[in-house]
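Risk register update: the risk that structure generation would not scale has been downgraded. Supporting records follow, first protein first.
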Amino acid sequence: MDPKERKKIPRQKMPEQSPHRRRDNFQEVPYGFSHETAVLEAQRCLKCKKPGCVQGCPVNINIPAFIALIEEGKFLEAAWKLKEQNALPAVTGRVCPQESQCEARCILGKKGEPCAIGRLERFAADFERAQGKPKLPEIAPKTGKKIAVIGAGPAGLTVAGDLVKLGHEVTIYEALHEPGGVLVYGIPEFRLPKEIVRYEVNYLKELGVTIHADYVVGKGKTIDELFAAGADAIFVGTGAGLPMFMRVPGENLVGVYSANEYLTRSNLMKAFRFPEYATAPIISKKVITVGGGNVAMDCARTAKRMGAESVIVYRRSRQEMPARAEEVHHAGEEGVQFELLTNPTRIIGDADGRVKGIECVRMELGEPDASGRRRPVVKEGSEFIIECDTVVPALGNRPNPLIPMTTPALKTTKWGTLEADPDTLETTMKGVFAGGDIVTGAATVISAMGAGKIAARSMHEYVMTGKVTKPEKKEEKADDGGDE
C-alpha cells in the first residue's frame, strides 16, 4: 500500500461503554480494538524513515516496527517488540498522554488525525495477556551486583525491569501492600483495571525481580542501612504522594478529603466493592472537586459512580485544563458538571463541623503566567456559594520528605524534590539515583518511566565501572510529511 492510499484511511474509533451505563459502574470505559480494526489502523502508518513519533516517546519505543507487525497480523510479536523498551505497555497504552507526545509528532496529524499509536499499543499488549504467552527476554549472565529500588511505581518498575535483564539482582521496597504506586492507588479501575497492573508486575517477577511490600524505607531500613546490607546502588522512586491543599478557611471540616485519600480508598482499598472489601465508601450527596488535571477528572468521575452529584471547580477555562481531552470529554458525557473560571475562597461548615457548602468567586483570564497559561484574575463582587457535603482538592502533590529526612547526604530543592543530574539522574549521594515525581514533582506515568530508563542506564555503568558518564546528545530531524 503506498502512502497516498494509507492517508485515505480514516482514524479508527474505539468502541466504549455508553455514558448512561458506565457512570454507574467501575468497569473499563473503552473496549479496545478488534483484530480487524487494529490492522486497519496500523495500515495508516506511513513508515517514516526518521519517525517523529519515536522522538516524542519518553521511552523510545520503536513505534513503526510494532505497528508494522500489527499490520501483518503478528500481534504477539508486536507486543514483544513493545516490551523491548517498555515493560508496561498495557498500562501506557491506556494512561499515556499520546496526544501531546508520540501522536503529536505523527506527520498524519499535520493535515488530519494522527495514527492511534496508544490504542494500537494497548491492543498488542492486551492480545498477549489474553493469549497467556508472555515472552521472557534473554537475561544477561549474573553480575553479582545488588540493586535496591525504593518504590514500586512506574519509575521503580522500569528501573527494575531494565536492570534485571542486565544480570543484576534487583529488590524493590514498596511502602503499600500492593506494587504499582499511582497505578494502583491513584488511577481508577474504569481507566486502568488493576488486573492489568498485576499482570505487568508479575511479568517483572518472572524476570527475577524481588518485591517487598509493606516496607517503608526510612522507617525500616534507611538508605545507609541498605548500602550496609549489601546494595551496590540504590534508586529512589517514591513519587509525590504528599497532597497539596487550597489554604482557604474550612479545609479542616469533616467532608474535606485530599484527592489521594479519596482515590486510594476506592482504588487500592476497593471501597467501591463494599462490603465485599472492608473499606467503607465515602457516601456523598454532592461532591465538589477542585482542579483541572487528570486527578481531578478521576475524582469527579469516581464521585459520580458512587451516586453523588459531581461538580468540577476550575479557575481557568476548559482550554487551559491540563487533563487529557479524552478524560474531560468522558467526564462531561457521564454527567459531571463544570464550574469554569471559578475559584474557591472558603469552605463553609455547619454547627457539627461538617461541610455544607463552598464559597467561590468568578475569574477572568489575564496575561500568561510562568506556566504559559493565561493567569486567572478575580472578578470583584462575584462571590457565590455552591451547596455540597464533600470537597476534594485535586491540586497536585509534593514528595514525602521521609527519605531526605533520614538521609542527610541527599540534597533537595526548595520544592522538596531530590536534586539529580538531568542527564544521569545521579543524586548528591554516591551510588544513589532518583527519578520520576520525586525529582520532577507530579508528572505523567510515561515521563516517570522515561526517567527510569535513564537511571537504569546510569546505574548499570556505575555498578560495573564505578563511574557515570553523560550520554552524547544526538539530534535527528524527523520526517516533515514526505512520502518516504
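Supporting record for the second protein:
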Amino acid sequence: MKTCEKVIIIGAGGHAKVIADIVIKSGDCLLGFLDDNKSGESLLGYPVLGKIENINKFEKTAKFIIGIGNNYARKDISEKYNLEWYTAVHPSAVIAIDVSIGEGTAIMANAVINPSAKIGMHCIINTGAIVEHDNIIGDYAHISPNAATAGTVSIGELTHLGIGATVRNNISICAECVIGAGAVVVKNIVDKGTYVGVPARRI
C-alpha cells in the first residue's frame, strides 16, 4: 500500500491550487499552504499555515513543493531553503518508463513525457503538454499547457515555453528565454530573450 506523504505547498495562488489537486488525487496528504499574503486564509478547504519565512517550523513534518508559476521565484526559494522536495505527477500524466524527473517538479493532467526525456528540478510540465523522446528540460523551466517539443529538443534553465508553442525536432533553446504563445521554433536559439511568431523571432 502506498504511504501517504505529508505535503506543504509554497504559494497559495492559482498554480498552487492545481498542484494541490495533484497531491490529493495522488493519494498524498496535503497539510496546507505557505504564502506571504494569505496567512490565516484557506484554499480548497486547506489552511494557509503562515508566511514562507515560517517554513522551518514545518521542515521536519512534511515535504514541500513550490506552487508558484514564476520560474525565477521557484529558483530563489529552492536555493534559499534546504528542504525535502515533493515531486507532483498527476495520475493522468503519461510518463515513459525511463524518464528522469528532478525533485520539486510538477507534471499536470494529461501531460505526455516520452522515452529517455530528462526533466530538471522545479520544472512545470503543464496541462496537456507534450515532451517527446530524448528531450532535456533544464531546471526551473516551464512548458505551458498544450505546448509541444518534438524529439531530441533541449530547453535551457529558466526558459518559459508559452501556451500552444511548438519546437521542431533537434532544436536547442538556451537558458532564460520566453517563447510566446503559439510560436513555432524552427531554428536553434542561442541568445536569451523573448521570441514570438511563426517562425519564432526575437523581439
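Residues 87-195 form a domain with the UDP N-Acetylglucosamine Acyltransferase; domain 1 fold (CATH 2.160.10.10). On this basis the risk owner (M.S.) recommends closing the item.
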